[in-house]
Specification:
7-stranded mixed β-sheet; about 290 residues; two-stranded antiparallel sheet; 12 helices; 11 strands; alpha/beta; Rossmann fold; binds S-adenosylmethionine
Length: about 290
């Protein structure tokens, strides 16, 4: 029988849950009970209902070995999504790795905003550009919702380009999407009906103080927005004006407190109908601008 770090194949699911919750509590995780349930389901390939229906069932192998490894990694701060190699976003199951930002629930605010603005044009042959495509979360969500749209995703990280390409393929979108290595809009030709971006927007000096799940497990290139957090907007916004079709929209995610600055930058560059949208926590999360028709 394998016995490692307090886990054994003979242990029941209920015993494993209690051990995990205690381990995660000691490691300082915010929701140790919830995390324990998720970890056990992942290691054992179980649904949550199986934990309730048969708590006395033995873990067995390979679940016990997997659980020992998973518990050690999660207790060290690695997010469960990165351990499992996948993350749910907008109803899609996406591949994630250490090379890409773990897609965040608040980024769904950008998707909702885009879809509201697209409105009745959802079935049109829209041209969409995603700058800093990362895992491909935004592009995959928008192309799934807009069945005739064409998308280009750009990223400066070769590893992110590889992951986004796999996600586009896995979501059945490869025929309508191109994923390209590059720096922002360099070499990109328009026009686009929609330009979207969730760029790095954390101030360099704030990175050290981030949660370890983010600081140690999301790539620095995906986080660091320079001294004031706004470097990427100063690169993306001026270039986007000329790449949008008349009446085309720019929709960018912003960090808490950055909405006013990014809105002001957009107005100075000639974008009209500038607006912001809040996420579920009430934080200004998205800035919209329109190229004059
Ligand atoms: C915050 S992540 C967003 C990833 C993904 N779009 C999402 O929302 O989950 C920002 C992305 O911008 C990329 N990036 C950083 N600098 C870049 C640049 N100069 N040109 C293109 N992409 C860049 C990073 O590699 C990272 O994938």
């Amino acid at each position: 029988m394998i016995e490692r770090s307090g886990v054994s194949a003979a242990m029941s699911r209920a015993e494993a849950l209690a051990w995990l919750a205690e381990t995660f509590d000691r490691a300082g995780l915010e929701e140790p009970g919830r995390e324990a349930r998720l970890a056990l389901c992942e290691a054992g390939g179980l649904r949550a209902s199986a934990l309730i229906a048969s708590p006395e069932a033995a873990l067995g192998e390979p679940a016990a070995s997997r659980l020992a490894d998973l518990a050690a990694r999660r207790a060290a701060g690695e997010p469960l999504s990165k351990i499992a190699g996948r993350r749910e976003f907008w109803g899609l199951t996406l591949i994630v790795s250490p090379d890409v930002l773990d897609p965040r629930p608040e980024t769904e605010t950008l998707i909702e905003t885009a879809l509201k603005l697209i409105g009745a044009r959802r079935r049109a042959r829209l041209r969409i550009l995603d700058l800093g495509v990362g895992s491909g979360a935004i592009l995959c969500a928008l192309l799934t919702e807009c069945p005739a749209a064409l998308g280009l995703g750009v990223d400066a990280s070769p590893a992110a380009v590889a992951i986004a390409s796999r996600n586009v393929e896995a979501c059945g979108l490869a025929a309508r999407a191109e994923i390209r290595l590059g720096s922002w809009t360099q070499g990109v030709e328009g026009p686009f009906d929609l330009i979207v971006s969730n760029p790095p927007y954390i101030r360099s000096a704030d990175i050290e103080a981030l949660q370890r799940e983010v600081r140690d497990f999301d790539p620095r290139l995906a986080l660091d927005g320079g001294a004031d957090g706004l470097d990427a907007y100063r690169a993306i916004l001026p270039a986007s004006v000329g790449l949008l079709a008349p009446g085309g929209r720019l929709i960018v995610e912003v960090g808490a407190g950055q909405g006013g600055d990014v809105l002001g930058l957009a107005a100075r560059l000639g974008f009209v109908h500038g607006e912001t949208r809040r996420d579920l926590a009430g934080i200004e999360r998205v800035v919209i601008g329109e190229r004059p028709a």
